[in-house]
Specification:
With about 110 residues, the protein is α+β, with helices and mostly antiparallel strands. It contains two helices and six strands. It is elongated.
Length: about 110
């Protein structure tokens, strides 16, 4: 058995959860925050049998697409100067997936 930890953007989470529950996967949803843009993320914990791992990865990949957004980066040119907003295009979305071995699974 494996535990899949999938970290996705908040806007991708509802569709992904619907897709996974439609295929009868059990999911635990955790709210999390990203470090770079400090934006909301959703962390999903999904327990699956070994042979189902690729199917779950395919669902995540088809649901969570990478996209570009424009954000402002504040810069300072000299000490004492004011902050100047600098537009910056960054890629967001997609997913980060960790797959862990499960030593024991108990469902009560």
């Amino acid at each position: 058995m494996k535990l899949i930890v999938a970290i996705v953007q908040d806007q991708d989470a509802p569709t992904l959860i619907d897709e996974l529950t439609e295929k009868e996967y059990r999911i635990t949803k955790l709210a999390s925050t990203g470090g770079f843009l400090k934006s909301g993320n959703t962390t999903l914990l999904i327990g699956v049998e070994d042979e189902k791992v690729e199917e779950v990865i395919d669902i995540v990949e088809s649901t969570c697409k990478t996209r570009e957004i424009t954000t402002s980066l504040l810069t300072v040119s000299m000490p004492g100067d004011t902050y100047i907003p600098y537009p910056l295009e960054v890629k967001v979305g997609g997913a980060t997936i960790f797959i862990l071995d499960v030593e024991k699974y108990v469902r009560l």
